[in-house]
Amino acid sequence: MKERGTETVTGKLKGSMTIEMTLLMPFILGIFIFIIFSGFILHDKCIVNKACMSAALRGSEETDPDKALDMANEAISEVIPGRLIGKWDYSTRIDVGEDAVRVSFKGNTGMGGGLIRRLISPGTTGHDYECESYRLNEAEYIRTKRKSGAGYCL
Prior knowledge:
Layout: E1 3-4, E2 7-8, H1 16-60, H2 65-79, E3 88-96, E4 100-109, H3 115-120, E5 125-134, H4 138-148
Antiparallel strand pairs: 1-2, 3-4, 4-5
Helix pairs in contact: 1-2
């Protein structure tokens, strides 16, 4: 029996490739599933971070603390609903001060429950974000732009 490539002279195919792929396939599928779930978690983190920054920036535009709080809450309610992939249990806290607006986001996601979550991280997958935006002093902003020679009309 003389061998040529993967066929023998008798015309039968070798089965070593099938057995090797059978052993490798669970590892390959596991890597693909891990990459997909990592992408889902990263997507949700980006959305939450964007909501946090948007709330801080929009709240810092108002001088009245009550309006600033309303604007920050409105920004969060525009960004988060319907955009998160995982099931989130979260809470937000907005602190409006004279010089800055601080937004804190704390949440746990139910994404990757069961065996996959236990393999990736044994505890809860919690995320904490804090964003801060300083209030804009219009006169100082205009003076700074004039000094730089860029003008102040955008």
